[in-house]
Structures are given as structure tokens and as C-alpha cells.
């Protein structure tokens, strides 16, 4: 395998092949050597990334969103450090949520600029957060994340979006419908959380643990400082929920009076009954018993802009 050849994993947003053709045209114009593989479903991403790794590709580009990137880094973390350190991971944003890509100023609408940056192969080692938990089968599990973990209401919205999408088909429409339906869902969860020397033991609406920007909920998080930003949102009235959504959209989420920010290397959730957990936009369900979230510093080689 030529060292400069890219292995590209394409995760389509819909049935149209126009985006793939556009990407291939830009790559060909710049004389990039590459091989394309396409995922058939969310379950196939890790299998295809593993195939690219074991076939000797040293540059792996994910054309997809946060969930596809999450699958890729979890696949990389299964490899020996020597193998992992020889591989650079990049992204061409192509998902509903491209939060981690946007942090680095990779934009879906600016494909040519993204490819030009990737060609320059500027590498930054980035952190991964990790949740360690027990599933309903009693098995000890762990899952890495680049961007964030959501516990509570936002994870519930993700679940509603998944159900709505299975009925409506459209990703954007399903997201809008899920936010509307959340009004009729549970709005708080009894949580017992230990963060540094602080203990939160009360009703919480949602909690975001971010190694990255966390969809605006951890806007000051930096994915290379060895720390996690945590935003704990206490229960509030429905009008305050919409006020919080407005602050989230306008980038001022931490200004909401019900939001309590922390910064830590690790935290323990002793109890969060019935609270769903989403990792980089993908649900892992509700862990059994207590679980821990920590950070591993500078473990993935990530291609960043010039």
C-alpha cells in the first residue's frame, strides 16, 4: 500500500450519489490517490475502518458526521498504540451533526477548502473522553468519544429523533419533531454526581460532558488539554427551556441561570435513574448502576486545517 494513498469511508446521508461524485471530482482534480469504501449501515462503519487499518492505509478519511467519527476512533482504540500512532484520521463533514468538524472549521459547504487542508496533512494529537459502564447484561463496557456525552433530556431527544426518522425519513424534520415532542416527555432525572470535590445530588434536566464543543453545551471545551468540560442543567420551567434553547442557538448557553459548568479530569455518576445516555449523538441506552467518565490525553492523530 502506497503510504500517501487515502482510505476513504463514505457514509451517505441519503440515497443520492451526487455528494460522493462531487467529492471524487475534487479529489481527482487534485491528483489525490485514494480508495473509496461505502458503509451500508451504522453497524458497518467499525468493520470498514478495521478493514482499512489492516490493509495498511495510513490516512483514513471519514466522510460523515459525529457518530461515524465516533465509530472510527473506537475502532482505532482497539489497535495497539504502535499501529494507532502510524495512522492519521481526517473528516469531510457529511452528517446531520458535524460538531467536531465545525470546531476545526471544516464546513460541509466548503468541500474544496477541506480537501486542500487534508492534503497538507497537518496533524494534531487530540484527546478522547471515555465512559466506563455496565450494560443490562451485566457486562463491563467502555466507549470513547471525541465530542461529548449527553445524559438525560438531550439523549431523550436523540431517541425521539431516531424513532421519528424511522417514520418520517427526513433527518431534519425528525429533529424538529423530536424537539416538539420533548415537551410531553419527562423533563428531570434524579441524579447523584461527583465532580472533583463537588457533589450534585438533586433533580437534573440534562448533563453534557464534553471533550469537544458538545453541540454548544460545552462551548469552552478544548480537545487537547486533558480535561473535560461539564454542563449540568437543573430542572426549570418550560419557558426557561425555550430560553435555554435560544441561548444554545446563539452560543450563550453557559449564561442560562440553570446551567452549572465544571472542568475536571474525571467524574462519577453514582445514580441517574431512567436517564438515557448518548455518546457523540448515538445512544448507548441507560447504564446499570454507577458509571465513570474520564479523559485520555492526545491519543488520536487528527488532520486539522493549515
Kindly describe this structure.
- This protein has 306 residues and is α+β, with helices and mostly antiparallel strands.
- 30% of the residues lie in helices and 35% in strands.
- It is built from nine helices and 15 strands.
- The protein has helices at 18-29, 45-54, 66-76, 81-85, 99-103, 111-120, 153-168, 171-181, 238-249, and strands at residues 6-10, 34-38, 59-64, 88-93, 122-134, 140-145, 148-152, 189-195, 198-210, 228-234, 259-264, 266-272, 277-279, 282-285, 291-304.
- It has a 15-stranded mixed β-sheet that branches.
- The longest helix is centred in the middle third of the chain and has 16 residues, at 153-168.
- The mean pLDDT is 87.
Amino acid at each position: 500500500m502506497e503510504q500517501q494513498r487515502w482510505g476513504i469511508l463514505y457514509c451517505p446521508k441519503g440515497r443520492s450519489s451526487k455528494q460522493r461524485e462531487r467529492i471524487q471530482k475534487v479529489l481527482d482534480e487534485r491528483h489525490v490517490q485514494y480508495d473509496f469504501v461505502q458503509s451500508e449501515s451504522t453497524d458497518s462503519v467499525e468493520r470498514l475502518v478495521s478493514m482499512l487499518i489492516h490493509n495498511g492505509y495510513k490516512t483514513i478519511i471519514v466522510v460523515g458526521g459525529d457518530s461515524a467519527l465516533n465509530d472510527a476512533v473506537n475502532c482505532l482504540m482497539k489497535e495497539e498504540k504502535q499501529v494507532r500512532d502510524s495512522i492519521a484520521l481526517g473528516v469531510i463533514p457529511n452528517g446531520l451533526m458535524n460538531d467536531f468538524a465545525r470546531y476545526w472549521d471544516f464546513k460541509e459547504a466548503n468541500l474544496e477548502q477541506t480537501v486542500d487542508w487534508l492534503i497538507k496533512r497537518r496533524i494534531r494529537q487530540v484527546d478522547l473522553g471515555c465512559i466506563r459502564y455496565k450494560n443490562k447484561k451485566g457486562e463491563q463496557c467502555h466507549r470513547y468519544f471525541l465530542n461529548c456525552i449527553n445524559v438525560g433530556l438531550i439523549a431523550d431527544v436523540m431517541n425521539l429523533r431516531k424513532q421519528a426518522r424511522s417514520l418520517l425519513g427526513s433527518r431534519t424534520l425528525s429533529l424538529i419533531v423530536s424537539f416538539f415532542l420533548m415537551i410531553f416527555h419527562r423533563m428531570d432525572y434524579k441524579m447523584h454526581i461527583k465532580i472533583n470535590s463537588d457533589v450534585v445530588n438533586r433533580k437534573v434536566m440534562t448533563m453534557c460532558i464534553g471533550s469537544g464543543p458538545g453541540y454548544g453545551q460545552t462551548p469552552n471545551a478544548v480537545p487537547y488539554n486533558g480535561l473535560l468540560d461539564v454542563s449540568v442543567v437543573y430542572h426549570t420551567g418550560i419557558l426557561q427551556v425555550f430560553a435555554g434553547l435560544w441561548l444554545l442557538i446563539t452560543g450563550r448557553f453557559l449564561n442560562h441561570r440553570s446551567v452549572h459548568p465544571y472542568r475536571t479530569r474525571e467524574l462519577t455518576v453514582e445514580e441517574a435513574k431512567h436517564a438515557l445516555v448518548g455518546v457523540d449523538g448515538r445512544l448507548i441506552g441507560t447504564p446499570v448502576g454507577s458509571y465513570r467518565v474520564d479523559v485520555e490525553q492526545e491519543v488520536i492523530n487528527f488532520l486539522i486545517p493549515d
